[in-house]
Amino acid sequence: MAQFKPFADNVKVLGQTVTSLIDALDSGKEVREQILAKHGISNIDPEKWYSQEAWLKAFEEISNKVGPSTIFMIGKSIPESAKFPPEIDSLEKGLGAINMAYKMNHKGGDIGYYKLVSFDPKAKKAVMECNNPYPSDFDRGIITTMARKFRPKNSFKLEVNLDTSKPTRLSGADSCTYNIEW
After folding, report:
1. Under DSSP, is residue 16 helix (H, G, I), strand (E, B) or coil?
2. CATH number of the domain that 43 lies in?
């Protein structure tokens, strides 16, 4: 599979996730709403479930129109205003919480996952595998914001990079792997 191709036919996405795409950036809001409506998603109710296939088709069109840097910015905005339980109080737990949030906002079949593959606080490195149908730059944005939000106070840098030595959705694989350094 590649980006924008659902893993299963009956997967649904919660409306609050759909609205986050619209509200992510002030500029272009109306265009994103029009594209979603073109794909059958309008008058979005945050508590209602929507077809992931339609959502991904709209997402792909938005991506083609605005480019990867805007998709990265949209991904970054997703967890920016999210509230986290008090037990999510470290970078390791924050990165692990991405999968929990993902599962809360998708249902109905194989949705994929976000997996913290390794976490080494001494080397200040982590590896995250994202096995889902979303654009790579979107995932990189989500991981970047989570890493910024929960990085240790004694860290001065933060880098989140796609590991191109592994298969990526950009080349038709089901997943992308990201190296995180802080």
Report:
1. helix
2. 3.90.1520.10
